[in-house]
User: What shape does this take?
Amino acid sequence: MSVTGNSNRDNFSSKFGILAAAAGSAVGLGNVWKFPYVTGQNGGGAFLLIYLACVFILGVTVMLSEFTIGRRAQRNVFGSFKTLAPGTPWYFVGIMGVVAAFVILSFYSAVAGWTLEYIVRSVDGSFQSNESLSNAFSHFITHPFRPIVWQLVFMVLTALIVAGGIKNGIEKYNRILMPLLLLFLIILCVRAVTLPNSLEGIKFLFYPDFSKITAKTVLFAMGQAFFSLSLGMGTLITYSSYFGKKENLASTAVNVSIADTLVAILAGVVIFPAVFAFSIEPSSGPSLVFITLPEIFKQMPLGSLFGVLFFALLAVAALTSTVSVLEVVVAYFSEEFKITRKKAIVISTISISALGVLASLSLGPLSSLLLFKKSIFDLLDFTASNVLLPLGGLFIVIFVGWYMRKDDVLDEVSNSGKLKVKFFPYYRFIVKFIAPLAIAAIFIYSIFFGSLG
Ligand code: TRP
Assistant: This one.
């Protein structure tokens, strides 16, 4: 086992690069459209408190566990389990991670592609046309090739960044894109809170209504925290396999979680004041972003500018996430099949895109094709979000909590004793007992009662 550093492998070169890349993976479509809506509908501030507890107790624990596995093994997600648990079936968790990456990217890239179309629509005046924005949206996503073209563009952009490697690709672009994302977000926040009546929106988001909190809400919050932090499929195992041995894993996990949560909350601060200022019903899911917001941009002075900024924000958030998901697959193919990264990138991009095209088509021309009563798109989403991710997260905490030797975990978390780790007993307790139980509860609930998010 290599614990001294693997000099042949490309690595991240700076602390900021690591933070930007890991936060880039976490901050994605999940933060910008899902979090604000889920929070608003589930008791606002009360949900937020529970969400914060989920992120900072469970999320940070699982993230630190992924970091521990990845940096210790310094391999792709499959290779990591092979290295740390040779001769056991644990590598199966790695295979699940690769499959999950494949599946997530296929439908996530479809939605990511829509953001590009909407950047164009913000400028070209499409929002002003007489067609209702909700018709325009459904015409677009059911169109036989328009969404697919954008999806492929998005996959190519993702592949180009991954092709630069870790330092000169993933790190370099995250270092540029993440500050840019923050800038867009701040501009949009300022615009939103200075709209008339913006306080109503802030209230909707933050006012704690504890009567809406049920056991289901808690599971909801946990599921959202997992997805938002990119946990459960080895994205962060893969990234941390490129971390230097001096990196403080625990503080990185805390910082990434803070950044992810902050972006989610700020996205809510952008969306809800705008929704209330223009007296629009806060509606659900994708329609909030692709139908409601364009309606607002249509009515707002300088709306095209804010529209472009908003959809560019979404595109950037999605891109830094798709990059992290593609890297899981590329690292696996290139390291396990001993092929060049270039070849691995071409193979994975083409095969994921093929599945992605099917996912896109299943919203339009292929919408009558149902498997288990779900469209291909929904089936892929369900399989990844409700089955593969929670199961992956469960195995990861069991692996670190029960399979790995305590001394090895302590050695990795403390950088071989160089860091003070007073929190270690608490971490250990959560990873052994609380996290497995909590994740098992989410898993069972979401299997039997359907989607949580
Ligand atoms: N966290 C991202 C978001 O909020 C999506 C994402 C990227 C993801 N990598 C992941 C989700 C790995 C689960 C697992 O949109």
Observations:
- The longest helix spans residues 91-124.
- The mean pLDDT is 91.
- The domain at 15-403+429-449 is CATH 1.20.1740.10 (Amino acid/polyamine transporter I).
- DSSP finds 18 helices and no strands in the chain.
